[in-house]
Amino acid sequence: MYRGHHAEEKAPLKPRLPQEVVMHNNKYEDFDVEDIKTYDEQMRAYYESRPITAPFTARKIKGWSDHIDDHLARSIQPDMLNYLNKQGYAIK
Length: 92
Fold this sequence. Notes:
This protein is 45% helix and 0% strand. The chain is mainly alpha-helical.
């Protein structure tokens, strides 16, 4: 069975965050929240257009912000402030 793309078929390019959101000059610049919302919509459309070949793959279409939220939720260290206080870094 052939898997992949024929030479004349090109896979769609993955959308990227707008340059004005990620590029800064000597300081962080404000950005327009609408740029993030638009990018989320583009990413949802991109993921919806991708074929899923593995039968065990759970398909939940998410935007970029959802992926970042999920990642940060997994990365939370609930006792980090106490740890930093004990180390003398985050005394309030």
